[in-house]
Amino acid sequence: MSKLILSKHKRAKQWAVFSRLWHVYDAKWQNPFDSADLISKYLAGKNKPIFHTLSDCGDHVVVINTSEIAMPDREWRYRIYRHHTMYGGGLSYTPAWELQNKDSTKVLWKAVYKACGPSLLRHTRMERLHLFPDDKIPEEIKVNISSQIRQLRPVPKKLSQYTEEELEQFPKLFEWPDDYVKV
């Protein structure tokens, strides 16, 4: 019986499949519930060929700019989060905008927690989620990041970010008259 000997390249490829990778995701202007579905796949390891529902092969996900998530206006006002302290009269309801103002990572954390599903491995998967309200990542985490998760929708540019040339070349519906007074 011959032994199967792997080359160094194939061995490194195999180790990469089993290792835990660190991914970064920019949540700026992204819907937290769509983002949560994407992030939960990486936390569970569904992006790997060795995935099994009972195996714990997920990766770490670092999410930046959680303070700049975007939801439709009605969603901010009418999405309510329930919390109970397990004491009498300890039930409280908090709207999403208020929860986001208190802790700018909490809305996305709750969305990812729900997207991970009712699994026995949910808590271990959530331990591999690292949320930051801005784009400042600690050095000890930054050195581990090896890939980036693509955003679901493009981030629009602000009007102040366009150059004068781009603004001049933008198609106009009509020309203002020379004697028009702007107030």
From TrEMBL:
<comment type="similarity">
    <text>Belongs to the universal ribosomal protein uL13 family.</text>
</comment>
<protein>
    <recommendedName>
        <fullName>Ribosomal protein L13</fullName>
    </recommendedName>
</protein>
<dbReference type="GO" id="GO:0017148">
    <property type="term" value="P:negative regulation of translation"/>
</dbReference>
<keyword id="KW-0689">Ribosomal protein</keyword>
<dbReference type="GO" id="GO:0003735">
    <property type="term" value="F:structural constituent of ribosome"/>
</dbReference>
<keyword id="KW-0687">Ribonucleoprotein</keyword>
<dbReference type="InterPro" id="IPR036899">
    <property type="entry name" value="Ribosomal_uL13_sf"/>
</dbReference>
<dbReference type="GO" id="GO:0005762">
    <property type="term" value="C:mitochondrial large ribosomal subunit"/>
</dbReference>
<dbReference type="InterPro" id="IPR005823">
    <property type="entry name" value="Ribosomal_uL13_bac-type"/>
</dbReference>
<dbReference type="InterPro" id="IPR005822">
    <property type="entry name" value="Ribosomal_uL13"/>
</dbReference>
<dbReference type="GO" id="GO:0006412">
    <property type="term" value="P:translation"/>
</dbReference>
<dbReference type="GO" id="GO:0003729">
    <property type="term" value="F:mRNA binding"/>
</dbReference>
<dbReference type="Pfam" id="PF00572">
    <property type="entry name" value="Ribosomal_L13"/>
</dbReference>
